[in-house]
Amino acid sequence: QGRATYSTDHITWRQLQPDLLLGPGAVLRTEADSTADLIMQDSGTAMRMTAGTELEVTRLHTEAAGEQTITETRLSLKSGAVIGSQRKLARPSKFDIEIPGGVATIRGTEYLVRCDGAVTCVSGEVEVRYNGFGKNRGVTVDVPAGYSFDPSTKHVVRTTPAYLRHIIADVNAVRDMARIFKVGRAIIIVKPEHKVSPHGCDGDNDDH
Fold it and tell me: Higher confidence at residue 134 or residue 201?
């Protein structure tokens, strides 16, 4: 929805189109009042980039291990926020979202990760390792369902109903996308989504 662009060389930017397949090294941007929906087939992840988001795909590795598939995914969130739904990964698979000052390790869950370090877990669990921007000692915390990590205090707090209402439309959208995965070898597929209310990363932690 709206306008989004991508680059594979960090120099040339092109319009993001539905059903576009991209691999490691791609950088994606959404503009104001815009969203982009991604599917990472191998890790069973559906993700929405909210308005004003810049996201780089730094690693997408897949390895067959008997009947299971081991995946290692690393994304770098430069600005904005991402909302995702992910199936439980086969061990020792990893799904990391790097943020300025830290990293969020996603387990089988539904979640929101913001560029300012705020992390909300709707279901499942997210591990957050956060150092922030100062010289204070960092923290490593587990964020369970119904809770959020507040980077201003480095504490895990219960998610308020008001903030949950703020993100629930996007959570439901990625949940629906996760249900319609098709078997294939796609890396990332951009799926058009209508009738959404995009939310950006505004750096306001009052509702966590």
Answer: 134
